[in-house]
């Protein structure tokens, strides 16, 4: 059980909000893409041309988001070690909130891309600040639990994004798909209000203040010195494999759910209404998020009793099983079936990320912690960016877009096996004291 002081709980909650809204803003586009993309391209919503364009632009914009996320993570990781955790948290939350908010006013795809880039820089920078702050404030005995609890905000952020899109597009404005997506993006401003509240109650960790008292400037080159190279490789490899799998699967949940709903309606001899489409997206995404929440919490006993290496190996093996069964078994378009399948994907593919909020900070000393964690967690996104783009592009070229997406996602399911093969390079940090 966590034994934290009131202030330590405040720090954990502040970082929890920052990361949760980070995910909320980052994934809003994926929910509105089936309506947003055709509108900005002047295509009839629901037409074959609109579906193909949505697949393509979902992949492209997700890849652009990941590249911006990576750059923001590296840059703000360095900034965080220079100016402090709290200031960086405030700055990055404001950046991604404003970037998402202005997407609501985009007149075309080019402007939308610009605002998504702005948002992605803040999204990438926030994680390292929050994870480092929590690791440095909570007691050693509570670091794993606090780190996993911090990441539970990710599925909660997705729950919120799903709920906001469902309420606006499926309840408040079900007959206005060409405009409802703009109101969804307006909700992206919420984190800006939270950021100012965070700044009022949270101060810089004493560990960071003591480590930077000598004024020595951290350098990215230090991550590749003999002293830190092995840690950098270990963190990078684990994050890279997890990121490629998660983003390739998650980015297309709304597209896959929409296609399955239309297939189910066709099988039943009925027409898929907007309410039905939004209902499928909501149910499948909720299942994925619920699995992610449980999987995140399961990293606590896995890491503490089995160790980090065994935890990663087990999660990667189960990820391959969950994804290949879902997209390779040719299962019927049944909502209950697919909700269970995405629940399993959530536990494994999503759940593994509950470990990075404590594993990566454990690898580096205080003066390099945010930069090292941010580098490992975000640099892989540059390579990861290829995945969603290829999935979207190849699937959009198929006569049957849904089947095309299934074929590519089935192959993506084998990527976690590479993580198992990388175990010899993974550093075990079980029972290690946080480095100063």
Question: How would you describe this structure to a colleague?
Answer:
There is one protein chain. The chain has 436 residues and is mainly alpha-helical. The chain has helices at 6-40, 48-83, 85-103, 109-137, 143-151, 153-172, 177-186, 190-201, 206-211, 229-250, 253-268, 274-306, 308-328, 335-350, 356-363, 366-384, 386-397, 401-412, 416-421. The chain has one domain (8-425): MFS general substrate transporter like domains (Growth Hormone, Chain: A, Up-down Bundle).
Index terms:
mainly alpha; Growth Hormone, Chain: A; 78% helix; globular
Low-confidence stretches: none
Strand content: under 5%
Number of helices: 19
Mean pLDDT over the residues:
87
CATH-defined topology? Growth Hormone, Chain: A
Q: Approximately how much helix is present in the residues?
A: over 70%
What is the level-2 CATH architecture name? Up-down Bundle
CATH homology-level superfamily:
MFS general substrate transporter like domains
Over the alpha carbons, how many angstroms does the gyration radius reach?
21 Å
Run of helices and strands? HHHHHHHHHHHHHHHHHHH
Largest β sheet strand count, sense and barrel closure: none
């Amino acid at each position: 059980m966590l034994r934290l002081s009131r202030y330590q709980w405040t720090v954990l909650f502040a970082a929890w909000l920052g990361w949760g809204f980070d995910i909320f803003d980052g994934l809003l586009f994926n929910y509105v893409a089936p309506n947003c993309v055709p509108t900005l391209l002047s295509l009839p919503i629901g037409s074959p041309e609109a579906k193909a364009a949505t697949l393509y632009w979902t992949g492209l914009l997700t890849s652009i988001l990941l590249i911006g996320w990576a750059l923001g993570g590296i840059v703000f990781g360095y900034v965080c070690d220079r100016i402090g955790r709290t200031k960086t948290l405030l700055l990055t939350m404001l950046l991604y909130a404003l970037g998402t908010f202005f997407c609501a006013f985009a007149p075309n795809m080019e402007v939308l891309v610009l605002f998504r880039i702005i948002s992605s820089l803040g999204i990438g920078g926030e994680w390292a600040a929050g994870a480092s702050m929590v690791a440095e404030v909570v007691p050693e005995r509570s670091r794993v639990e606090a780190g996993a609890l911090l990441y539970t905000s990710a599925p909660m952020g997705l729950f919120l994004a799903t709920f906001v899109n469902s309420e606006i597009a499926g309840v408040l404005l079900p007959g206005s798909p060409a405009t409802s997506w703009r109101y969804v993006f307006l909700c992206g401003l919420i984190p800006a209000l939270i950021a100012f509240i965070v700044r009022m109650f949270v101060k810089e960790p004493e560990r960071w203040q003591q480590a930077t008292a000598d004024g020595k400037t951290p350098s990215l080159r230090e991550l590749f010195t003999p002293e830190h190279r092995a840690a950098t490789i270990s963190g990078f490899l684990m994050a890279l494999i997890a990121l490629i799998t998660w983003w390739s699967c998650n980015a297309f949940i709304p597209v896959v759910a929409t296609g399955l709903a239309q297939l189910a309606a066709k099988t039943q001899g009925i027409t898929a209404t907007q309410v039905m489409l939004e209902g499928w997206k909501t149910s499948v995404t909720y299942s994925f998020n619920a699995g992610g929440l449980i999987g995140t919490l399961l990293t606590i006993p896995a890491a503490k009793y089995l160790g980090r290496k065994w935890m990663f190996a087990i999660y990667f093996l189960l990820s391959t099983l969950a994804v290949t069964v879902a997209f390779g078994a040719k299962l019927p378009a049944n909502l209950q079936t697919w909700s269970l399948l995405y629940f399993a994907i959530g536990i494994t593919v999503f759940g593994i990320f509950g470990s990075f909020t404590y594993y990566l900070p454990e690898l580096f000393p205080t003066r390099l912690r945010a930069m090292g964690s941010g580098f490992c967690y975000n640099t892989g996104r540059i390579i990861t960016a290829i995945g969603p783009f290829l999935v979207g592009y190849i699937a959009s070229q198929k006569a049957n877009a849904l089947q095309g997406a299934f074929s590519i996602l089935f192959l993506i399911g084998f990527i976690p096996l590479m993580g198992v093969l990388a175990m010899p390079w993974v550093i075990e940090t079980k029972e290690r004291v946080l480095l100063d």
